[in-house]
Amino acid sequence: MPAAESDVVAELEHVCVDYDGDRVLDQVNLRVRRGDFLGVIGPNGAGKTTLLRVLLGLVRPSCGHVRLFGQDLRHFRDWHRVGYVPQKAVAFETRFPATVMEVVLSGRAGRAGVGRRLGPADRTAAESALRTAGLWEVRDRMVGRLSVGQQQRVFVARALVHEPDLLLLDEPTVGVDPEGEDRFYALLRHLHRERGTTVVLVSHDVAAVAQEVSQLACLNRTLVFHGPPEEALRAGALERLYGTRNVVVAHRH
Amino acid sequence: MELLQYGFMQRALAAGVLLAVAAPSVGVFLVLRRLSPIADTLAHVALAGVGAGVLLGVSPALGALVFTVVGAVGVERLRASGQLFGEAALALFLSGGLAVALVLLSLARGVNADLLGYLFGTATAVQPQDLVWMAVLALVVVGSVAWFYKDLFALTFDEEAARVQGIPTDALNLLLTVLVAVTVVVGMRVVGVLLTSALLVVPALAAMRVARSFRATLGLAVAFAVASVLAGLAASFYLDVAPSGAVVLTSLGLFTAASWASRWRR
């Protein structure tokens, strides 16, 4: 089915990753389709972050194939189509002397090309990303002076500024207070529904993720389950993943 | 202004300003990348280049430039490969540079006063032809930082995110280290091997205390460095104290003042 093939945004085929002889990912097959909101969950050390880093080309798999937008990762150059939000809220150097605007603009650097100056189009894109992320009022503040929730939205805005088709987020709500978390998920919903951005969200927060996403991937070195979150409950995937019967998945909607 | 009537003071001030514009321009990035010890290391490698220059009968500055740039490539390779602990790799180059310098200078029967001059700087002995190469090197540093400003910012703020964007981070890391090497050669002449890193690091730290954006940090760091050089050289002229010591003490004074100002404003 060629039509369906072109719908695949990201694809892992029999991917393994080894760290010092330790197999972190084992024969993982995963397809992310256009418009998916995929949550990747699993216990600590399950390889969630590694999976994301494989997709970003930061970790080279020891076997298997990785494709982004139908192209083998080794030849992939359209990196502006991929937005990356790192797990930064905690590790982030808060003394770094930069304004919100400066950080968000830095997301245009790769797209503009090395040695090229940023122009009015970059500034317009940054303004739009700041408004979308609800950061327009604090654009001239120093990043380190913002709340953790705001800082995390700065990193989302930096990813949005190059107008990605695929957004990859690594534990984005770690250290964010509940109110900031609600706002953060509202922003992701907006991007997914209004803009049709494909989202892959790695998290250990099963309850929060399960009620937001359209697809759930349960990972514990191998892919235990991939499908809609309701099915994951029925299939008992969470119990298999965490080895416990009392995983509570609340539904707010 | 009495001090401006002397040609040697005019040249010292000009050389100092060239250094003061170049050093913080690269120093701000270096400090934020947590790589500031590289400046000190490459300064010691520069001394080995001076020794080679003296021994071979070519310009010591040229020898220093060749050695620091090669040293910069070596340091960056070792750092990027992660084979050694970062700071231990630097110690190798620092002590190695100093040892090679001492051996080469003793082979060349280098005069001791010469060695002291390179260790502590000879701003007031700068010749007109020195100013030419110093201006060229300073221009290379400032021009490169201006040209690659947005790329260096992206690298410095978040190297991984920069790489994911397709920015050539390895090449930019190398560029930054080579720019430090070039700066160090200018600094060696003005404030000497032992104090060059101060002009890369201290004005940058002072600026970070008070600036409210990255652009302002760069601008303020250069302003602090220029002020330190001008006030320090003037002080050394009127008080008859060592110029490099006066310059670096002034920059430390400005850092203290900036720290007070930031606390008071908070």
Structure description:
The complex is a heterodimer of chains A (253) and B (266). Chain A is α/β, with parallel strands linked by helices. Chain A has 10 helices and 10 strands. Chain A has a single domain (2-242), classed as P-loop containing nucleotide triphosphate hydrolases (Rossmann fold, 3-Layer(aba) Sandwich). The two termini of chain A are 34 Å apart. The model of chain A has no long low-confidence stretch (mean pLDDT 87). In chain B, helix 1 crosses helix 10 and helix 1 (7-32) runs antiparallel to helix 11. Chain B is an all-alpha fold and 266 residues long. The mean pLDDT of chain B is 92. Chain B starts with 6 loop residues before the first helix and ends with a helix. Chain A binds chain B through residues 56-58, 77, 79-80, 82, 84, 86, 88, 93, 95-99, 102-103, 105-112, 114-115, 117-118, 140, 142, 158, 162, and chain B through 32, 147-148, 150-151, 153-154, 157-158, 160-168, 172, 207-208, 211-217.
Overall structural class of chain B, as computed from helix and strand content, comes to: mainly alpha
Q: Which architecture of chain B per CATH?
A: Orthogonal Bundle
User: Biggest β-sheet of chain B: count, sense, barrel?
Assistant: none
How much of the sequence lies in strands of chain A comes to 15-25%
* Low-confidence runs of at least 5 consecutive residues of chain B: none
Q: What is the strand tally of chain A? A: 10
CATH superfamily of chain B: ABC transporter involved in vitamin B12 uptake, BtuC
Distance between the termini of chain A: 34 Å
Largest interface: A-B, 34 and 28 residues
CA radius of gyration of chain B: 18 Å
Q: What does the overall shape of chain B look like?
A: globular
Highest-level CATH class of chain A: Alpha Beta
Strand order of the largest sheet of chain A: 6-7-8-3-9-10
Q: What is the third-level CATH name, the topology of chain A?
A: Rossmann fold
Strand count of chain B? 0
Give the topology string of chain A: H per helix, E per strand: HEEEHEEEHHHHEHEHEEHH
Percent strand of chain B = under 5%
